[in-house]
Amino acid sequence: MIEQLLEKVRREKPLIHHITNQVTINDCANATLCIGALPVMTHAVDEVEEMAAASGALVLNIGTPTPDQIDAMVAAGKKANQLNIPVILDPVGLGATKLRNDTVKMILDNVHISVIKGNAGEISILAGRGGTVKGVESIGRYDNIETSCHDIAKAYGCTVVVTGAADIIADSNRTLMVKNGDAMMGRVVGTGCMAASMLGCFAAVESDHVQSSAAAMACFGIAGQLAAKRNDIKGPGTFKAALMDELYNLDTASIEQYLNIEEVVTI
Amino acid sequence: MIEQLLEKVRREKPLIHHITNQVTINDCANATLCIGALPVMTHAVDEVEEMAAASGALVLNIGTPTPDQIDAMVAAGKKANQLNIPVILDPVGLGATKLRNDTVKMILDNVHISVIKGNAGEISILAGRGGTVKGVESIGRYDNIETSCHDIAKAYGCTVVVTGAADIIADSNRTLMVKNGDAMMGRVVGTGCMAASMLGCFAAVESDHVQSSAAAMACFGIAGQLAAKRNDIKGPGTFKAALMDELYNLDTASIEQYLNIEEVVTI
Amino acid sequence: MIEQLLEKVRREKPLIHHITNQVTINDCANATLCIGALPVMTHAVDEVEEMAAASGALVLNIGTPTPDQIDAMVAAGKKANQLNIPVILDPVGLGATKLRNDTVKMILDNVHISVIKGNAGEISILAGRGGTVKGVESIGRYDNIETSCHDIAKAYGCTVVVTGAADIIADSNRTLMVKNGDAMMGRVVGTGCMAASMLGCFAAVESDHVQSSAAAMACFGIAGQLAAKRNDIKGPGTFKAALMDELYNLDTASIEQYLNIEEVVTI
What is the DSSP string of B157-217? Predict the structure, then answer.
């Protein structure tokens, strides 16, 4: 299934419209291109509806929020909703400032989101269970994180993805654990943002967003594992370049060899 | 001739003022520094005239256009025109949205451009022959692209560069084809933007902009070929780093070995 | 001492809030993460006070200044001052335009800066001795640069860092020379900006800012030397990735082997 979805991304080359932060915008564009889709990044309120309408998915990332950009996110999101184009939300730093809390609320009040992806702190805070986010980093343990996912999924009618040592992918009743990835991914700024880009690429070609999200996180994680194993990797700088390489090189054989997904069955 | 122009860039180190997009701004700055010029990137309307006046060339790229930035482009462009400083325009995504169409028109109505560089879709649209641009990517075939170049060159008194498997460089009566470059350059976001930076670097040291543009595209393409041949390249991530290396390392021997330019003679 | 400060950065993982330029924002974030601290980059005036208040240091860099961003710098800086959080200022391109001169004056009039870092041209201009800055590059020789440092240190009650072949670190009466680093660092855009990030990381864990700044510049310089010695380095592109690697890999043995600091004693 995952190999077929990757093949579909590469065949259809969906346009993935990002409205995103200034820090990792280049990495998100390159990761999108490497996996086989077409990136476009623009936040001008005068064109985001038109660009979103031409896209296969819309990725909203609040890493460096400004008033104009937030307006653009809402406008693009509403247009995407009208046209049934999936919208991914990455609520970067939710809980760290009032602006981020207000921004996420404004987006969720105005736009139907297909997939919300965050770290454990952000997702726990969004579920109303509290948490700690230092800058954009999750701090502490979140033992009820699966329940938080299901609550958010029910409240917003969406799929929820929590990135971590194992990634959790859940809707209101299903939970998958993707155990791919490598610790080096946490030593590079923006791998969380790139994961949201991957979620967009796969959501554009598969309407079951638990499936599309599992495929996205598995492919991204396996690329990370392949990069980490390379003997030309000497630290986070060379690893980042290798991660892009391996998204581009990813093939069926590697997916079959490394794929590690479990369905969590609750009795 | 090309070797001499490269030597001149490195000796004079012209300041290349970019008003450009958020996605590839770092890559454009690094490519400019690697080839031997000095990059400066600023879009504050309060300083762009002063910065443009101190520069050897001005590069305008509408990849992530906003109203303030467009105002800055026009102000900087007018100042550059007054001082006879060449202006390069990269109409990124022309045809994809009304904002981009309006922005290009506003710039061309107010600023004399020395070199317009685009992909085939953008150039065909600019020439009034229509075309398809998906996000920022040219879609389809453009068999009349040379005629489009000549039409634009006549209409705006400029040189036109079309990037592709072979790059076309044309003014109203001459056409050169630069057949350097490597397919890997299309797998890295921003090589088109970096090409515009190169056009600025060489336009700053040579007033015949067919010559300067041919030198820029040849040097950039040869650097791409040298990067692609390296055995430490494993995909787009490592290729991108190698491309910067090879812009920096580019020498007369490599140019002589790889240079592949043809003049197209129309009877 | 330096090894202990590096260990403290890695143990405490201070949040380093940057309000910085669009060109090198990703590199600054990655360098901060590689050395062991936590980066956060945001410039929205609605959240910068809250983010600065949660941080261990605030880094202000005027590389691509806009009115909103300058307001955010002043607001964040005042909040940091109230809470005794050190503020680093990188007056990028001071002297190149009136906007940059006015911006630096506005920041210095409103915010107490702990460490000002610039190139020789910027520092000489700030000291009132004049100088030439082309874009963001220092041009010419500055024989009185140590005197300029002491004058600035006295005027603003701060530590002054001048980057160059040897880095100068001075307050009103002490002067240290850090002779680490490699010429390749000058071939990568943003190493000056990353140096300011390093100054922030170390200022967050050590209140003697001559000591913290010496540690920051020594660690950054040694990482550059280790990167330059690697046999997988083929130019500025691969060097940049290696620099990130070596910030991450930096250990006591390398510091002991390469550290080259002198105290300048004036009689």
Answer: T-EEEE-SSSEEEE-SS-EEEE----GGGGGSTTHHHHHHHHHHHHHTT-S-HHHHHHHHH
